[in-house]
């Protein structure tokens, strides 16, 4: 497959680098990372080891590909979609956290847009090098659920590159469940400056669980069957499995970078308002993170 990975940061470089073992990959990113990859290739180390030579560019306009994998932060999705729309794609797949990315892509792109969730961990080490901090799995499928031969083809392509992939018929439920995990873990760890495992202890556990329950309530109002128990259970198991991790929002806050709060807690608040569900915990968490963002000179 010809695959464009739009957003060659931590996750995009890891996924793009793994795909490059089997497919023709073009990474769209920024310098000095792109420049280093063009000269010396991309190195992946940590839990996986690879040295690959994908095409790398800072110019994402006019690209033709079988698939575009989108791995920019949620607040860059609109710009990424507008740029990708100048090329010709057979399909697009979001592997981003937060909600609303697929809808944004579909607004601009003239091809099927698939939803994805990924539990691999990636960290940017230096230009030309990323670390795989955790081998996980990927699920992808039609963004409104159901099956599609094109989703099957994309799943097979990821599998051929040794990325463990499930082609799922229930992506809306999986996206909401991941959102419940992110609404519980990300803002709480970012505000308290603690690793993921710390949210398992009371009284922080109650705060995280309240955020996840609200998210499940909004999901149900949106027609997705996610129980409170499933949402809080997912939070517990992810926080246990990633106990020593610093969440992406904590890493953003620590490096004075903009967070994805709008697509995580903010999405739950906004969608809750539209559906008549009150979300006081997510509202408080979103407001506090946004207040921090406003007071910073963000990268
Ligand atoms: N890092 C991880 O382990 C995981 C990340 N995610 C999600 O994946 C998404 C990406 O996360 P990260 O890779 O950590 O973020 P990141 O900030 O490391 O990577 C995003 C990259 O996109 C680039 N970019 C943005 N707009 C661009 C444009 N117009 N042209 C060229 N490059 C552009 C940025 O320069 C940056 O390097 C987020 O939604 C995150 O929540 C999901 C699971 C795991
Ligand atoms: C699952 C979790 C919480 C892992 O840290 C994550 O997705 C993130 O940090 O954004």
UniProtKB/TrEMBL annotation:
Keyword Oxidoreductase applies: yes
Keywords: Coenzyme A biosynthesis, NADP, Oxidoreductase
GO BP: any one term: pantothenate biosynthetic process
Domain Ketopantoate reductase N-terminal, first and last residues per copy: 3-144
Pathway: Cofactor biosynthesis; coenzyme A biosynthesis
Entries under SUPFAM superfamilies matching the protein: 6-phosphogluconate dehydrogenase C-terminal domain-like (SSF48179), NAD(P)-binding Rossmann-fold domains (SSF51735)
Residue span(s) of domain Ketopantoate reductase C-terminal: 173-291
Catalytic activity: (R)-pantoate + NADP(+) = 2-dehydropantoate + NADPH + H(+); (R)-pantoate + NAD(+) = 2-dehydropantoate + NADH + H(+)
GO cellular component, as recorded: cytoplasm
Record carries keyword Signal: no
InterPro entries registered for this protein in UniProt: 6-PGluconate_DH-like_C_sf, 6PGD_dom2, ApbA, Ketopantoate_reductase, KPA_reductase, KPR_N, NAD(P)-bd_dom_sf
EC number: 1.1.1.169
GO molecular function term, any single one: 2-dehydropantoate 2-reductase activity
Pfam families named among the record's database cross-references: ApbA (PF02558), ApbA_C (PF08546)
Role summary: Catalyzes the NAD(P)H-dependent reduction of ketopantoate into pantoic acid.
Family listed: Belongs to the ketopantoate reductase family.
Full protein name: 2-dehydropantoate 2-reductase
Lineage: Archaea, Methanobacteriati, Methanobacteriota, Stenosarchaea group, Halobacteria
């Amino acid at each position: 497959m010809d695959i464009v990975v739009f957003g060659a940061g931590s996750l995009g470089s890891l996924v793009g680098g793994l795909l490059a073992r089997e497919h023709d990959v073009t990474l769209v990113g920024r310098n000095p990372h792109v420049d280093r990859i063009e000269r010396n290739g991309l190195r992946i180390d940590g839990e996986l080891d690879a040295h690959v030579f994908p095409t790398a560019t800072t110019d994402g306009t006019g690209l033709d590909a079988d698939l575009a994998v989108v791995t920019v932060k949620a607040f860059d999705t609109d710009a990424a979609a507008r740029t990708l729309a100048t090329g010709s794609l057979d399909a697009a797949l979001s592997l981003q956290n937060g909600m609303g990315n697929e809808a944004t892509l579909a607004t601009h792109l003239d091809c099927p847009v698939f939803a994805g969730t990924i539990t691999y961990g990636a960290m940017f080490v230096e230009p030309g090098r990323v670390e795989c901090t955790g081998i996980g799995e990927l699920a992808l499928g039609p963004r409104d659920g159901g099956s599609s031969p094109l989703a099957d083809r994309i799943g097979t392509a990821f599998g051929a590159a040794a990325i463990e992939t499930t082609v799922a018929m229930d992506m809306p439920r999986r996206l909401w469940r991941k959102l419940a995990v992110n609404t519980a873990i990300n803002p709480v760890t970012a505000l308290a400056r603690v690793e993921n495992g710390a949210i398992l202890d009371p009284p922080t556990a109650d705060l995280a669980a309240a955020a996840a329950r609200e998210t499940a309530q909004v999901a149900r109002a949106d027609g997705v069957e996610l129980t409170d128990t499933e949402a809080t259970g997912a939070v517990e198991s992810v926080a246990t499995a990633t106990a020593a991790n610093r969440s992406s929002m904590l890493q953003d806050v620590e490096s004075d970078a903009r967070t994805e709060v709008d697509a995580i807690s903010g999405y739950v608040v906004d969608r809750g308002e539209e559906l008549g569900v009150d979300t006081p915990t997510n509202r408080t968490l979103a407001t506090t993170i946004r207040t921090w963002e406003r007071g910073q000179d963000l990268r």
